[in-house]
Design a protein that fits this description.
86 residues; mainly alpha
Length: 86
């Protein structure tokens, strides 16, 4: 199998800096432990289950949709803390 080579595509290291707003957000969010986002995600699962058991199906689905974004925010937080930012 041949290896694909993409010349001239993408951004090279240190070729682009984040804007001041992104830096400020990363500064504050990096202080939050990653377990906080995981706890919020599990809490959303529990709240969604509770709402479903109470017969509030639409509310249950609404809260259940919070789980993936919370986990993604936790992953982003972890990456910023481990890899740093600009």
């Amino acid at each position: 199998m041949t290896e694909a080579v993409f010349e001239g595509l993408g951004v090279k290291a240190h070729e682009h800096e984040e804007g001041p707003t992104t830096k400020m957000i990363e500064q504050y969010t990096s202080q939050i432990p990653s377990g906080f986002y995981l706890g919020l995600a599990f809490g959303a699962v529990g709240a969604s289950l509770g709402l479903r058991l109470m017969g509030r199906d639409r509310d249950s689905q609404f809260v259940g949709h919070w789980v993936a974004p919370l986990l993604i925010m936790g992953l982003y937080n972890k990456i910023v803390r481990l890899q740093g930012s600009d």
